[in-house]
Amino acid sequence: MKLFILPSIFSGPVWQIIGETSAFGIIVLISLTFMSLVSWLIIFNKWRLFRAVQSDRDSFLQSFERSRRLADSIGQAKSHSLSPLSNIYTAGYKELDELRQARNEGGQLQPSQQPLRDEEYELIEMTMEKTATEEISKLESRVIFLATTASAAPFMGLLGTVVGIMDSFWAIGEQGSASLAIVAPGIAEALLATIVGLGAAIPAVIAFNWANNRIKSFNNNADNFILAFLVRARKETP
């Protein structure tokens, strides 16, 4: 005895429904299928990217926290370039080094003895914040498509549903009968459009919220790292 029955969407009749769907309904189904496939591609790519970024972030942070001086983390930053923190560190250290050299040009004091002004530390902070914004923007790329799919797909499915219902009523008017054989094709088309629309929207909205949460976490890490960098820079420079 069969323990379950496969729903009709996984069996032959679904292809019959598609074969009898109107041209407009086919356009809606193709558009929704395309949006769903692109969304899944973005989800998979973001999952791989975020996993790699987190791995590089953790490795770089461990090295940075163990190092005694800011200069000791240069090598680790280059070898963990996927992490936004590595690129933020590189930008901040480059700006710090340039300011130190500029402050000591023509002077008698050694670079480690010549203090930097508060305005110069603000320049370092702005440089790092600019880099952080650029790095977070890279992580956010194509995530907006998930939001678009999540918001547009249900309405496109609803549009296909309305068209299917209209076809059913039109068939009733032409045939002068409301028998099941007349209204069934339009109703089936309407329900199929609804299913495909929801099938595209539900994973997209879940993935969008997940991606936003991960990006927010990376952004908070960047803000905390900038503060830690500036604190260490002030300790190293009188």
Please characterize this protein's 3D structure.
By secondary structure, the chain is an all-alpha fold. It has one domain (22-59, 69-236). The protein has 7 helices and no strands. α2 (23-66) runs parallel beside α7 (180-236) and α5 runs antiparallel to α7. It is rod-shaped, with a radius of gyration of 29 Å.
What are the key terms here?
238 residues, mainly alpha, disordered N terminus
| Unreliable residue stretches | 1-6
Shape: rod-shaped
Count of DSSP strands = 0
Radius of gyration: 29 Å
**Amount of helix:** over 70%
Total count of domains: 1
Order of helices and strands: HHHHHHH
Write the layout of secondary structure elements.
Blueprint: H1 13-19, H2 23-66, H3 74-79, H4 84-104, H5 118-140, H6 143-175, H7 180-236
Helix pairs in contact: 2-6, 2-7, 4-5, 4-7, 5-7, 6-7
Short structural summary:
This protein has seven helices and no strands. It is mainly alpha-helical and 238 residues long.
